[in-house]
């Protein structure tokens, strides 16, 4: 069986409890993802804003072509 690499990328901020909740849920469900902490990578802020339709909000989750803004739970 070939391992499929995750396409999930989440844009977060360390002071965002919704970012923490999303990461906790992804970890609990053993879902692989890449995290872009916008406090560490400020050059990615414009990218996150564009994905969020112009909003300054975290988390932003990109799974391939699907973008989810904010956190409402995965289940």
Number of helices: 2
The biggest beta sheet is recorded as: 4 strands, mixed
Regions with pLDDT < 50 over 5+ consecutive residues?
Answer: none
Query: Level of helix content?
Result: 25-40%
**Which strands sit side by side, in order, in the main sheet?**
2-1-3-4
Number of domains: 1
Q: How would you describe the overall organization of this protein?
A:
It is built from two helices and four strands. The protein is α+β, with helices and mostly antiparallel strands. The protein has a single domain, classed as Glutaredoxin, CATH 3.40.30. The longest helix is centred in the N-terminal third of the chain and has 12 residues, at 17-28. The radius of gyration is 12 Å and the shape is globular.
Name its key features.
alpha+beta; 75 residues; Glutaredoxin; four-stranded mixed sheet
Q: Concise description?
A:
By secondary structure, the chain is α+β, with helices and mostly antiparallel strands.
Topology:
Elements: E1 8-12, H1 17-28, E2 34-37, H2 45-51, E3 60-63, E4 66-69
Parallel strand pairs: 1-2
Antiparallel strand pairs: 1-3, 3-4
